[in-house]
Amino acid sequence: MKVREPFFWVTISCGAVIMVFILLPIVEMLTAPSLSMIMEAIKDKNVVSSIRLSIVTAASAALIAFVFGTPLAYVLARTAFRGKRLVESVVDLPIVIPHPVIGIAILSVAGRDHWLGMLLADIGVRVMGSVTGIIAVLTFVGLPFYVNAVKNGFENIPVRLEHVSRSLGASMTSTFFRVTFPLARRSVLIGLLMCTARAISEFGAVVVVAYHPMIAPVLIYERFEAYGLKYSQPVAVWLVSICLILFLALRILILRTEKQE
C-alpha cells in the first residue's frame, strides 16, 4: 500500500476547507426557504420582472462586449505598439475600481453638466434610472473579462495560419472571419460566459445609476433591508437556479465546441 506524504494530506485538507467555505453558505441559502415560499416568490410579478431584466441586460452587455471587444482583443493579441501595456491596463481598470465608484463615474459623464450627457439628453437617451444605464454599467464591468479571454484565445492561434491564408490571396477580413475567428470560437464562448456571469452579479454600481427599474440583485437587497432573510432568500434561490441553468447550458455548448475541435 502506497504511503501518502504529509504534503498530500495538507493539500487535501486545504481543498476541503475551501469547498466547505464556498458551498456551506450557498447550500444553506438554497435550502432555508420552504418549497411553498419559493413557489410563492416566483408568482410575484416583481420577482419575475427583476430576474428577466437581469438576464436581458447581462446578455445585452455581453453582446456589446462581443461586437466592440473582439476587434480590440485581436489587435492586442496580434499587434505590438507603443502604449500597448497602457491600453491593457485601461481594459483591466474596471476590475479594480470599487463598484459604487463605477456608478459615480458613469453618472459623471452622463449628467447634464457634461457634454456627453447633454448630447445624450438631446437625442432622448436617459442613463440615470433607466435600462440603458443598467446596460452601460454591466458592459463596463464585464468588458475586461471578455476582452482578456478572447485575447488569450487569439494568442494561442499560430500566426503562420493567417500568413498562409494571406499568401493564398485572402484579404485580412476574409482571413479573420474564415480562419482566425472560427479557431477562437471556444475562447469567444468562454468570454461571453464570463462577461455575462460578471454582469448578472453586479449590484454596487447599478444601485448608484439605476435603483429602478430593479434588477434581481437590487430587489434581493431591498427585500433583505425591508423584511430580512425570510423574504430575500426565495428570490435569491430563483436567481441562482436560473443562472446555474443558463451557465450549465453554455458550459455544455463550450464542451461540444471542444469536441468538434
Low-confidence stretches: none
- The whole-number mean of residue pLDDT values reads 90
Count of structural domains: 1
Order of helices and strands: HHHHHHHHHHHHH
Radius of gyration: 22 Å
Number of helical regions: 13
Q: What share of the residues lie within helices?
A: over 70%
Task: Tell me what portion of residues adopts beta-strand conformation.
Answer: under 5%
What can you tell me about this protein's structure?
This protein has 261 residues and is mainly α. The protein has one domain (37-260): MetI-like (MetI-like fold), CATH 1.10.3720.10. 82% of the residues lie in helices and 0% in strands. The protein has 13 helices and no strands. The longest helix has 34 residues, at 45-78. The protein is globular and about 65 Å long.
Structure keywords:
261 residues, mainly alpha, 0% strand, globular
Layout of SSEs?
Layout: H1 6-31, H2 35-42, H3 45-78, H4 84-96, H5 99-110, H6 115-122, H7 131-155, H8 159-167, H9 172-183, H10 185-200, H11 204-209, H12 216-227, H13 229-260
Helix pairs in contact: 2-13, 3-7, 3-10, 4-7, 7-10, 8-9, 10-13, 12-13
